[in-house]
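Researcher: Following up on the earlier apo prediction. This time include the ligand. It's pyridoxal-5'-phosphate, with the SMILES given after the sequence.
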Amino acid sequence: MSEKQPLQLQKPKWIYFGGRVRLSEEAVFHVSTEAVVRGLNVFEGLKACWQADGSFGFIAVERHWRRLRRSAKLLHIPFEMSLAEFDDALHSLVQMLYEPERDMWVRATLYVTEGHWGVDTKSDLVLTAFHWPKGLPQPMKTGISTWQRATDASLPYRIKTSTNYQVARLAKIEGRDRGYPEMVLLNQHGRVSETIGSAIAMVRDGTVYTPPAWEGAFESITIDIVEALCADMGIPFVRRPIDRTELSIADEMGIISTLNDITLVHSIDGSAFGEQPILQAIAQRYLRAITGVEPHPSVELSCRPPADRLGPPSRPAAPASPGEAPRQATAAAALAVQAEKPRVSGRVRSTLAKSGYLQGLAALLFGG
Ligand SMILES: Cc1ncc(COP(=O)(O)O)c(C=O)c1O
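Model: Understood. Below is the ligand-bound prediction.
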């Protein structure tokens, strides 16, 4: 168990931007881009953990890449990067930043850097990586927010875009005032959808329940993994609507996501849950799977051996210009690409990079 730290307080030295790893302060947008003016982006949050064999592994890279493509498609944002390029980019950044004692969380954000109201839209993938404690999070208390999940016809929760997190932010502020680090959002029918940034699971009479996507839940990769683990562990798992009062009287409750793993919830609006043997067993099994201690077919890992740190990028980093080939790898990245291909992502196919370029000056938004 470990104490979590606020991601947004970290200012990592390196960032992936304009097709390669650069110093963070070189990553800038023009203030008039749709990325800034409309907060237009889609993103993913990926976790990478130190593995039992000493390698460093990302969880479910292909599934995150596919979901990023789906979000981009729904918002008419071009995203041409292949899975192999995405995977290489992830590893190239963490190899510049990781530390032996901590895992990492990477925010992969596709920002709209050119275009207007959907005309001539161009995008660029930005990766920011943050240190994150190893192991499972501490149990937490939660409350039910007065804010509501948006609907598919207003702001589709299926799209992982920053604007979808404005309500989450309000709920977070509300929760902080009430002493809760995480808040449950109800849907327009008053039923449970999810928390600010995680799926919800409850246990009643030995069965794990979670709301289906159409109840306002984001399509979580981790909840799919939990479903697969439950199947192997002989634990019934059902997706169906959950009433607010049903959650309050559940035997167990957990929040589930890439970032939070399976975090046990010890109370909701002050009402305590008891022992949580089922979710605890699933959480431990999940931890063993993502760290390679006891692999599971539902947990695909893209692992690479630790790279020697070769220091700063091999040439002075400058913002990419329109004519510049966008994939100038750092020395460490180049080394890693040559060294070994991802262990489990053998289906990866490499094609030419087509990530966009960025112009102008303005401060980059970190994390969040
Ligand atoms: C709103 C929301 N719900 C659920 C999740 C969990 O999704 P995943 O398990 O794929 O991390 C996330 C995390 O991305 C999220 O932001």
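Model: The two ends are 24 Å apart (CA to CA).
Researcher: Noted. I'll compare it with the apo version next.
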